[in-house]
Amino acid sequence: MPGPSRLRRLLDWIFDLDLRIAMAALLAMMMVVVADVFMRYVFNAPIRGSFDLVGMCLVVMVAFGLPRVIADRLELAIELIDMLVPPPVVRVLSMVAGILSTLVLLFILWAMIKPTVSAYNYGDRSLELNLPVWIIWALALAGMASAALAALAAALTRRTPAAPPPGAKEAGLE
């Protein structure tokens, strides 16, 4: 079995790959929207299938962007209890929250299996491009599985939350 640091490096590599996929999907989505608007207003010829492409890229961006955010503990958090209880209690609460997040993501993953199988069995196709819908469901499943893995890794590691952004103290956002 690989050591904890090797395992952590492997997970970081997986979550970085997920993030790169999410960034590529975001870039593709932005390019399609800009090109579609340009073609529509300049040549009165919108890009066929832009609605399908943007929707598919949005699914990929969200599903594959989530693991890196969760692994780095960059989710939005309201830290009301953190100032009232000692640090060991905060760590326990953080671990409980990570385990609950893992369970919720696993439930979402489980709930996505049936629509994926149905889309495959019935041969569902996208409206404009006539692409198989099950492929998008499968990509979303992969992203959610990675997000659940990230939540579990975050719950089981003792990593402090990210430092507040520059200027947060002056703005009262610390």
Walkthrough of the structure:
It is a single chain. 72% of the residues lie in helices and 0% in strands. It is an all-alpha fold. It has one domain. Helix 1 runs antiparallel to helix 4, helix 2 packs parallel to helix 4 and helix 3 runs antiparallel to helix 4.
Topology:
Blueprint: H1 4-42, H2 50-71, H3 87-122, H4 133-156, H5 168-171
Helix pairs in contact: 1-2, 1-4, 2-4, 3-4
Write a concise keyword list for the protein shown above:
single chain, 174 residues, mainly alpha, 5 helices
Question: How would you summarize what this structure contains?
Answer:
With 174 residues, this protein is mostly helical. The chain has five helices and no strands. 21% of the residues are buried.
Q: CA-to-CA gap between the ends?
A: 40 Å
General form? globular
Helical coverage, percent range = over 70%
Largest sheet: none
Taking Cα atoms only, what radius of gyration do you get, to the nearest Å? 20 Å
Number of domains: 1
| Strand composition percent | under 5%
Q: If helices are DSSP runs of H or I spanning 4 or more residues, what is the number of helices? A: 5
What's the SSE pattern?
A: HHHHH
Q: What's the rounded overall pLDDT mean?
A: 89
Query: Based on DSSP secondary structure assignment, what is the total number of beta strands?
Result: 0
Global structural class: mainly alpha
Low-pLDDT parts are none
